[in-house]
Design brief:
By secondary structure, the protein is α/β, with parallel strands linked by helices. It contains 15 helices and 15 strands.
């Protein structure tokens, strides 16, 4: 059953039947008709990968394309019902009257991993098909040895029949009516073998369907926008060129302002094997207009020192342009005295490194912004958040901000206020607290007071968005933020900062 989520409609999903799929819309604010592309995130038909949903829709918006994200049924579902939900979403987009206009014969699908399987199977056997298909590291075949067993099991059960394997392996179902397709994947994908894309490409070629296939040499599964893999990040430009060729994307008249994030694992985008761990950088885009693109270069385990030594700041220097922002947040790994490749003294190298980042951005016309580290979840004996939960680094950053007249977002203080308001026990839900066997990525369970759950990452992104709104030096960026309907947790974060 399909339920269309209005941008202004608060939704409590628990109030809907379990067999409900939710279509969230990301239309452009334009008066003319534009193409539409529906996004199907991956997640092995067990969950939905958030970084393959809204961030993809926002990227499509930047290309002048209306977008929507289908939060389709996962877990226990009927195959027919699931496929119908996707087809009904395509029908709704084409046929329903909206405030924004759609070109009805330019409605595409983009799917990642298991979402790529769902997109490809609808594109081959569906009674309602898209006009264009994009696939990122898709599950295509349900035959061993190339299938992704988790996706197949959730879709067909433990013991699928030969008839089911044939019927729902997309490469076996390609016909002359399958739409033009662009695919990308990596040669060493450890979860969904490259052969899936090769098999689909062979079938498309056999039927003389126009297609492009891009296989990058190296990259983990679940890259999404590939912001932590510069080679695979090329797929965005390749797809943009292809979409322009097919009349979907506009040639951009102006460069989109980019907001680079230089930071550590608390901000970094997480891959499929790390979920449900989430970095706050995965949610910042949702607070910004399409004219600002978040380019998240944060990487797990990095400090101000190792980020520079590994050439990651140099990579940003190659790309940053006048008017772009550089958000700088380090501290957790600078603390690690036992590791000389990362440790910095808060009153010595840490301060000098921060100045290096600031000067690097300014020399290229960029706008540096310092963010104090998000606090670890650490409480004192009297039940208060530990003011030294990230050592002396937040205080050192504040001093550098004052000395260099650099905008500062005090996220350490804001996050401590959040933990205080929730209390020691309740604040666990913001972090990676999972019992044994609760999630396949963490079979032994996990207790982690540094890294965020999906809920925690959302809350921290909200804290950062509110801090931007209150920073007088960032008034230009504030004007390019979007208003969101906040859920109860986000409203709490809003109240704390205000």
């Amino acid at each position: 059953m399909l339920h269309v989520v209005s941008p202004k409609e608060p939704i409590v999903k628990e109030e809907f039947p379990s067999e409900t799929s939710f279509l969230s819309l990301y239309p452009l604010a334009v008066g003319e008709a534009r193409p539409f592309i529906l996004v199907l995130p991956g997640g092995g038909y067990e969950h939905l990968a958030s970084h393959e949903g809204e961030p993809i829709a926002r990227w499509l918006n930047d290309l002048g394309i209306h977008a929507g994200v289908l939060e389709y049924q996962v877990g226990d579902f009927e195959i027919t019902s699931l496929l119908e939900d996707v087809e009904h979403a395509l029908q709704w987009i084409r046929q329903t009257s909206h405030d924004w206009l759609v070109i009805p014969d330019q409605v595409g699908l983009i799917g990642f991993s298991a979402g790529g399987h769902l997109a490809s199977i609808v594109s081959t056997i569906g009674t309602v098909k898209p006009d264009l298909l994009l696939l990122g590291y898709p599950v295509i075949s349900f035959y061993e040895p190339y299938t992704h067993i988790g996706s197949r099991t959730h879709f067909l059960g433990e013991q699928p029949t030969l008839e089911q394997l044939q019927a729902f392996s997309s490469d076996r179902q390609v016909t002359s009516k399958t739409p033009p397709t662009l695919m990308w994947t990596t040669a060493n994908d450890g979860a969904v073998p490259v052969e899936n894309s090769l098999l689909f490409a062979f079938s498309l070629s056999r039927e003389r369907i126009p297609f492009e296939l891009h296989v990058f040499e190296e990259g983990r599964h679940g890259l999404g926008l590939s912001e932590d893999n510069h080679e695979c990040h090329q797929w965005l430009n390749l797809a943009e060129t292809w979409l322009q060729k097919h009349g979907y994307a506009r040639a951009r008249q102006q460069m989109t302002t980019r907001l680079f994030i230089a930071g550590d694992s608390t901000a970094a985008q997480k891959g499929a094997t790390e979920k449900p761990m989430t970095g706050w950088g995965e949610y910042l885009q949702s607070y910004l207009a399409p004219s600002v693109h978040v380019d998240n270069r944060a990487v797990n385990g990095r400090s101000t020192k190792s980020f520079i030594v590994e050439g990651r700041l140099a990579d940003i220097e190659k790309d940053i342009l006048a008017g772009d922002y550089l958000f700088i947040q380090f501290g957790h790994n600078d603390e690690k005295k036992e590791d000389p490749t990362r440790y910095t003294d808060p009153d010595g190298d840490y301060r000098q490194n921060l100045i290096h980042y600031i000067q690097s951005a300014r020399e290229r016309g960029g706008i540096p912004v310092l963010l104090t580290s998000v606090s670890r979840r650490r409480f004192t004996a009297n039940g208060e958040p530990d003011p030294l939960a990230v050592g002396a680094y937040p205080a050192a950053m504040r001093q550098v901000a004052a000395e260099t007249k650099t905008p500062l977002l005090d996220i350490f203080e804001a996050s401590q206020q959040l933990y205080r308001s929730m209390g020691e026990k309740e604040s666990q839900q913001l972090f990676m607290y999972l019992p044994e066997k609760a999630h396949p990525n963490y079979p032994a369970g996990i207790t982690d007071n540094t890294h965020f759950s999906d809920k925690g990452a959302k809350q921290v992104a909200q804290l950062i968005a509110e801090a931007i709104r209150q920073c007088a030096e960032l008034s230009a960026l504030k004007q390019r933020m979007v208003e969101r309907n906040l859920d109860s947790d986000e409203r709490l974060a809003h109240q704390l900062v205000n």
